[in-house]
Design brief:
single chain; 248 residues; alpha+beta; Pseudouridine synthase; nine-stranded mixed β-sheet; 13 strands; 31% strand; elongated
Length: 248
């Protein structure tokens, strides 16, 4: 099999990564960054890459949309000059699959924090679940989770939340294009959601529970698509590292 790693020193490259559970997006990108720096040093030794006088060895790298540590799936990583396209990738629609736990809530809206309240689910029917999901289709105002990386007054919201400091949240306009319930086995409800930029699936979980007259939190999450880019075409971070080493 031909090594798929072909780094263009002039144009850079875009890499599709399947981020594993429990990795931060930063950790995935950082691993790739240091792998690429080692590759560039090797290319310098071979005479394939040179630096201008006074220039330091560095590589531009960034991703187009953070995934929480408790989420897996597609991460678009841009290297070199392709980093200028990050904003356009971030503006693309996203597809997610995952599951909600119905009948309880957590402060983080997911499994990061322990359950803080439980609710009855005796009134919840399959029909009610599907009807409620349809109410979320379209443009709406959404409040981000307090455990999120959004900055408020110079601090990340999760920093304030972990310090026990209350912060007044501001709603944001988001768009949900598709909201499909793919399997129902209460208390677990599996879903597929297609949404626009800036949408928090954890907030959908919280709001979905309220709309049901109960509670809910995000039990699992996987990003499967960004625009036309599909996670089935993505590589693991380990595979990327191996490709780069083989290319040296």
């Amino acid at each position: 099999m031909q090594n798929p790693f072909q780094f263009d020193f002039e144009q850079g490259m875009v890499v599709l990564i399947d981020k594993p559970l429990e990795w931060t997006s930063f950790a995935a990108v950082n691993k790739m960054k240091y792998t690429m720096l080692a590759y560039l040093r090797k290319q310098m030794e071979l005479g394939n890459y040179t630096l201008a006088a006074g220039q330091k060895l560095r590589i531009k790298i960034g991703h187009a949309g953070t995934l929480d540590p408790l989420a897996s799936g597609l991460l678009i990583v841009c290297l070199g000059k392709q980093t200028k396209n990050i904003d356009s990738f971030m503006g693309m629609t996203k597809e997610y699959t995952g599951s909600f736990y119905i009948g309880a809530t957590t402060p983080s809206f997911d499994l990061e924090t322990a359950v803080n309240e439980t609710f009855s689910v005796s009134h919840i029917t399959t029909e009610l679940l599907h009807q409620t999901a349809q109410q979320f289709i379209g443009e709406q105002q959404q409040f981000p989770p307090v455990y999120s990386a959004i900055k408020k007054d110079g601090k990340r919201l999760y920093e304030s939340a972990r310090a026990g400091v209350e912060v007044e949240l501001e709603s944001r306009t988001v768009t949900i294009y598709e909201f499909e319930l793919t399997n129902i086995a209460l208390p677990i409800v599996e879903f597929r959601i297609v949404c626009g930029k800036g949408t928090y699936i954890r907030s959908i979980a919280q709001d979905f529970g309220k709309a049901l007259g109960s509670g809910a939190y995000l039990n699992s999450l996987r990003r499967t698509k960004i625009g036309e880019y599909d996670v089935t075409d993505a590589a693991t971070v380990e595979a990327f590292v191996d490709w780069v080493k083989l290319a040296e």
